[in-house]
Amino acid sequence: MTGKELQEELTWKFPHIAKEAPEQVEEAAAFCEGYKAFLDEGKTERECVKKAVELLKAAGYAEFDTQDSYQPGDKVYYVNRNKAIIATTFGEKSVKEGIRMNGAHIDSPRLDLKPSPVYEKDDMALFKTHYYGGIRKYQWATIPLAMHGVIIKKNGEMVELNLGEKPGDPVFCITDLLPHLSAEQNERKLKDGIKGEELNIVIGSIPYTDDEVKEPVKLMALKLMNEQFGITEKDFLRAEVEFVPAHKASDVGFDRSMVGAYGQDDRICAYTALMAEIDTKNPTYTTMTILTDKEEIGSEGNTGLNSNYVGDYITYLAELEGVNPKEVFRNTICLSSDVNAAYDPTFASVYDPLNSSYVNKGCVLTKYTGARGKSGSNDASAELMAKVIGIMEKEGVYWQIGELGAVDVGGGTIAKFVASMNIDVVDLGVPILSMHAPFELASKLDVLNTYRAFKAFYKN
Ligand code: MN
Ligand code: MN
To answer: How far does the centroid of ligand 1 lie from the alpha carbon of residue 236, in Å?
Structure first.
């Protein structure tokens, strides 16, 4: 045996999809047209839930009713407080045999308004913000921002805000210094390039013309908001208002091989999971596709995975069949579907090249997250790795493995909260460049193969 033959037999490298299956390039581009539209329509968790309900209803899903009875093949959805949603296709086997669960998150890093946000300083009107999730603050200055969210008026009426998205809409922004005057700011550490209390959004500069009033520019901004949305300053106390990048999802590169957009972490898994769920007909095992909230701030709150809502839903499914929910939990397997950091040639030193994920090599199976000795991590068992790898290889899915950055650099996902319900869970998702930035990058081939992985998972 030659050394080359022996090498082929004993070593392993994940292939580049475009080299091994170039016919997928076109298919991936077509699939990502729907994905880009989903990104543009869902820039907050509420908007994603709304869009998901629309897509599910169109595909024949009905609202879940705990008192109803269901047959294999039936499709239902359940909405949790307008910010999280679970979709299910009932399987042929009893839920006692376990559920095929897939959880992605639909919240993304952004700038939330503080409860009392409006102020005037030196003839400018501005909003105070408190950022949500892990952002590199300097990236959020001098880019066009759009306003999204809801305000509940005193009479209970909900006003939905969406300004800065349509052609012709005004946009908003955070200012930064010009190079000529930034000598002092340049000495700051990069993390303080723009500080938290400097993330102030410009909303107006024209005063209300009455010499008697103090803060006439703020008054003018409030007058315009009142005309447009029927709200007053006090209404911000009953609100969730979010500022997100105003730009639309775009193709990136001469070859259009990548999608560049805001919020791909983790709507990239949410969309692929939702499409796989919808395309699954008559599965063997009952499916649960979860699009959840609050992952970016530690899965806290009653719409995040560290709440009982997912466990309660499983209990409802068990009770429908008169099965002990504990058996369902124990036999369920879950993909915690979230993005991973793609190897970036410009910043190679933070990656272990042997254990990184790469764009165009398929979805990433991540055995464990966490950092510094795997702390704060779910560490999937060898048995579960074997099961999931077996399913993907059976269905010809392109996949790879990846750690989130080198040892002592990484972070976490919803996996550990799923594991605490006594469910087998492993992370699987899409490699992303510039994760958490206002404009994140992902490969279309990886998006397609993540959809295929989810479809294979629901089928087997
Ligand atoms: Mn994520
Ligand atoms: Mn994230």
So the answer is: 28
Q: Is 141 exposed, middle or buried (0-12, 13-18, 19+ CB in 10 A)?
A: middle
Which strand ranges, in their side-by-side order, compose the sheet holding 333-337? 62-63, 75-80, 84-89, 286-292, 99-105, 333-337, 424-429, 363-366, 399-401
Going from the Cα of 337 to the center of ligand 1, the distance in angstroms, rounded, reads 8
Query: Do residues 110 and 206 touch, judged by C-beta distance below 8 A?
Result: no
Neighbours of ion ligand 1 (CB under 5 A): 265-266, 338
pLDDT tens digits for 15-24?
Answer: 999 999 999 9
Q: Which of 426, 316, 448 is nearest to 379 (CA)?
A: 426
- What Å distances lie between residue 344 and 65, 168, 252, 433, 435, CA to CA? 47, 36, 16, 7, 11
The Cα–Cα gap between 5 and 43 comes to 51
Per residue in 295-339, pLDDT tens?
Answer: 999 999 999 999 999 999 999 999 999 999 999 999 999 999 999
Q: Give the DSSP letter of residue 309.
A: H
Distance 287 CA to ligand 2 centre (A): 24
Report the run of H or E that residue 104 belongs to, with start and end: strand 99-105
